[in-house]
Specification:
- The protein is α/β, with parallel strands linked by helices.
- Helix content is 42%, strand content 22%.
- Helix 6 packs parallel to helix 8, helix 10 runs antiparallel to helix 11 and helix 10 packs parallel to helix 12.
- The model has no long low-confidence stretch (mean pLDDT 92).
- The structure holds adenosine-5'-triphosphate (ATP) and magnesium ion.
- The site of magnesium ion has 2 residues, from helix 2.
- Adenosine-5'-triphosphate (ATP) binds next to helix 2 and helix 3.
């Protein structure tokens, strides 16, 4: 399973290395949260490693987005567009929905295996263009399924509700996506508060906390870690493993092998909110009698 460097400083460690290739990630955030910045940063990082880039803007002005990138200091974008490494597609939600239904499969078939990063910023109008929830679900599911063949997808979603991810236009894409990142942006009180949280990430461990982030000129989104998340296996995890080996002697061999492998993969951070003794007792209890 290969992981792609996201280009968002500090995010890779929250996703255990990066975004899994050929998956679909949804980035949700209110106005000004940094969705377009995230999308641009992700695509620009791809340019550095030779990926192809497709930036689909819906009901948004593509000139405006390119200007934002240049203002951010990412002037190379003009060169990438000129030499065809990065393609912008500017469409209305209706045009794009028709494209998904009628032309996407043949587009995907003709693509021919090059690694690419695909961005849709924002996906929200596609949902709105389709009032029937069942059809929304079918359309988004089909879109993700097809695009995963072509590359690694990042879609942004506007957050219109109370900021708790329950808005009707966010729920369906959240289910369909492999990975969901919430850019929680609050303007209550005197200043602004920005927090990034990984809501889900299929097939991977991920951070379960909210992390402060900033948007810095020239840099883009940068997550501010107060301390580095421990990646290495350390004291607690090894102690639990040793204790497990001690207590597991009576287990069936296959179970012993499976659990031994599982516990070897755990880190100290996994035990942060667990009492190792109770944890082991629960395992033993499961196989007794
Ligand atoms: N060139 C820049 N220099 C410094 N900060 C910037 C720059 N460009 C953007 N930002 C910061 O990023 C914020 C908006 O980011 P962005 O446009 O990515 O948000 P968004 O979530 O896409 O918003 P919208 O919902 O309006 O599309 C700005 O409000 C600003 O704080
Ligand atoms: Mg935007």
């Amino acid at each position: 399973m290969k992981k792609t460097k996201s280009g968002i400083y500090g995010l890779n460690s929250l996703l255990d290395g990066g975004i899994i290739e050929n998956t679909a990630t949804v980035v949700i955030g209110a106005a000004g949260a940094g969705k377009t910045t995230f999308a641009l940063q992700y695509i620009m990082r791809g340019m550095e490693v030779g990926d192809d880039g497709v930036f689909i803007t819906l009901d948004e002005n593509q000139e405006q987005i390119i200007k934002e990138a240049v203002d951010m200091g990412w002037v190379d974008i003009l060169e990438y567009i000129k030499n065809g490494k990065l393609v912008f597609i500017d469409a209305s939600a209706e045009q794009f929905s028709n494209f998904i239904r009628k032309e996407l499969p043949s587009f995907v078939q003709q693509w021919g295996g090059t690694k690419s990063r695909i961005v849709i910023d924002p996906l929200t109008p596609v949902i709105w263009a389709q009032p029937d929830k069942y059809v929304q679900r079918e359309l988004i599911s089909f879109l993700f399924k097809e695009l995963r063949h072509v590359g690694t997808v990042v879609c942004t979603l506007e957050e219109h509700g109370a900021g708790d991810l329950t808005g009707p236009e966010t729920v369906i894409p959240m289910y369909m996506a492999d990975c969901v990142v919430h850019l929680k942006y609050s303007t209550k009180g005197e200043g602004v508060e920005r927090k990034l949280k990984v809501v889900k990430c299929r097939r991977s461990r991920h951070s379960e906390r909210a992390h402060d982030y900033k948007i810095l000129p020239g840099v883009g989104i940068s997550i501010h870690h107060k301390k580095r998340e421990s990646t290495g296996k350390t004291e607690v995890a090894e102690k639990v493993l040793a204790e497990f080996r001690e207590r597991m002697k009576d287990l069936p061999k296959s179970t012993r092998i499976r659990l031994n492998k599982a516990l070897t993969g755990l880190k100290d951070s996994d035990y942060e909110t667990i009492d190792p003794n109770i944890f082991l007792s629960d395992i033993v209890e499961e196989y007794q009698g």
